[in-house]
Amino acid sequence: MKLKLTSKEKSDLLPKIHSVIDTGKPWEGKQLHYAAGAVIDAVLSIPGMKKKASDDAVEGFETNGWQWDWWQKFSHKGVDYTLSGSGYYGGHGFHLSD
Fold this sequence. Notes:
Elements: H1 7-23, E1 27-29, H2 36-44, E2 49-51, E3 61-63, E4 69-76, E5 79-86, E6 92-96
Antiparallel strand pairs: 1-6, 2-4, 3-4, 4-5, 5-6
C-alpha cells in the first residue's frame, strides 16, 4: 500500500484543496484513488491545517466500515472542512463541513 503521495500527485491535488479553502465551493475527484492516510497527510501539509477532533471519531476520522467509505474532519483558520473517500470505489472529495 502506498503511504505517501508523490510530488506530482500532491502538486495536482493541493490546488484543488486550496480552491475549496479560497472559494468554499466543494471539489470532487471521482477518478482519484489514494490511500486514506496518504491523502490526509497531503492535506495536513497545508500550513494551518489541523485534524478536527469530534466526539464520536478518533482525531476526526470516521468510516462506515463495510463499504470502506471514510471522512476526515479538518479545521483551517477557524473554518471546518471534510475530506472524504471510498476505499472500494475510489474517488475523493473536499468541502466545507455541514
